[in-house]
Amino acid sequence: MEISNALRGKVLVEALPYIQKYSGKIVVIKYGGNAMINEELKDAVMGDIALLSLIGIKVVLVHGGGPEITDMLKKVGKKSEFVDGLRVTDKETADIVQMVLAGKVNKSLVALLGRLGCKAVGLCGADGALITAKAMDKKLGFVGEITDVNPEPINDLLACGYIPVISTTGCDSDGNVYNINADTAAARIAGVLKAESMISMTDIAGILRDMNDPSTLIPKIYVSDIPQLVNEGIISGGMIPKIDCCREAIRRGVKRVFIIDGRVSHSLLIETLTDEGLGTMFVQG
Fold it and tell me: Which residues of 156-170 are buried (b: 16+ CB within 10 A; e: fewer)?
């Protein structure tokens, strides 16, 4: 589609108040799903993050990497097992999770941002005792429950103009490595940073009143309305823990939390810098 100069100008002018609103503020982006494994979408997401950073927004990128972990486990002959959506993680699997997330996935994202002119540094839970964790449940093995988040490494990097890129592994005082759910980690990190907003990139358009009808998207939800939406079955299944993370982030002081469709090219920019938006926003109230 041909875009006219007038339309380009309209888009830029529309973005101005949002740039002013977010400039100098912290925005935590949780990244994963199809937007991570599709190379074209990955390039678009990194381009969006680069732009947000270059206009003065302090971006913190928190990423998962479930498909990559599954692929590596297959290569070494280990079968993936899940309980309530969480990967059962023995000691060997925990080592592979750390290798894939903190090594392969994390460094590839750092390199991509670097090629786009951004200064980015990769972190995992062990770096500066960033994420301290303990075993969540014996039947899950080394799946971690976060006990503490140390914001100092993140704040130090932000102060020096870097984008922290955080892989969601944690550790304890004995050096054990834990696999941490990326949504949970992003919510805790956003909370401790008192972020202006948290944006969770998912594989759905947002919260729909009718899951088969995109026109029923709910653009704004007050956290006090969440129990009713669960009772009505509008929020159900695997979305419940994701929404719990949104609520937790708000409870810990994040002003706004967005769930957006990471499969849509440039969804980050549309949600952050335009009147239109495209996902569901959660706010206190």
Answer: ebbeeebbbbbbbbb
Write down the residue that tokens 């006090």 correspond to. 224
Q: Does the pLDDT value for residue 3 go beyond 60?
A: no
Asked if the model's pLDDT at residue 94 lies above 50, the reply is yes
Least Cα distance to 257 among 280, 273, 234 occurs for 280
Give phi and psi for 105, each to the nearest 5.
-70, -50
Q: What CA–CA distances, in Å, run from 140 to 70, 144, 223, 251?
A: 16, 9, 30, 27
Inter-residue contact 112 to 49 (CB < 8 Å): no
Rounded to two decimals, what is the model's pTM?
0.93
User: Tokens 């270059």 label which residue?
Assistant: 54
Q: Is the pLDDT confidence value at 7 over 90?
A: no
